[in-house]
Amino acid sequence: MLNMNGISIRKLTPEDLGAILMIEKASFDYPWSEKDFLGEFEMKISGNLGIFLDKKHLLGYTFYWLIEYECHILNLAVDHKWRRKEVATTLLKALFHKAQQKKAHIFFLEVRETNVPAINLYRRMGFTVVGRRESYYADGLDALVMNLDLLARPI
Ligand SMILES: CC(C)(COP(=O)(O)OP(=O)(O)OC[C@H]1O[C@@H](n2cnc3c(N)ncnc32)[C@H](O)[C@@H]1OP(=O)(O)O)[C@@H](O)C(=O)NCCC(=O)NCCS
Prior knowledge:
Strand content: 25-35%
Order of helices and strands: EHHEEEHEHEE
CATH class of the domain at 7-109: Alpha Beta
Shape: globular
Number of helices: 4
Mean pLDDT: 96
Largest sheet: 7 strands, mixed
Distance between the termini: 16 Å
Bound molecules: coenzyme A
CATH architecture of the domain at 7-109: 3-Layer(aba) Sandwich
Strand order of the largest sheet: 1-2-3-4-5-7-6
């Protein structure tokens, strides 16, 4: 269980980009660029949450689109040093709470078929695999489509 002392969650801003990009580049073979993140900050349907230690050290983040009752999780990453401490779990729970306040209860995401940590995380949060997108990623790997309906399975 994440020790919540000094932990806070808030919306990110372009001023957080430096810290976001450090985690992003260390987390993905094909990281989002600064331009990708800036695009998300400008898009009306796009939302995000960052989780911080002592309000200044970014530990992880998620970016998503909220469209009526659906929330599509686009990006989620945690600083290497903070992995396996329930940072992502805490962030996802905060996202579920926020999305539900906006009447969204169905969550979708795509995950690389080989990404065992992420697949395990999402399964533990209640997601199930509902489809596969062939050769979805630049390296030819398939994506698993995972889904969670909080009305059908409250957490
Ligand atoms: C996937 C990721 C976000 C998980 O973040 P995290 O904060 O370490 O996750 P949590 O500590 O909340 O883990 C919760 C559960 O997820 C699963 N999990 C997390 N990391 C795992 C690993 N390395 N191996 C196997 N299962 C793992 C476990 O079931 C874990 O519960 P447990 O620790 O009690 O066994 C993180 O590893 C990461 O940033 N990876 C690189 C970016 C990425 O792949 N993002 C997802 C894109 S779809």
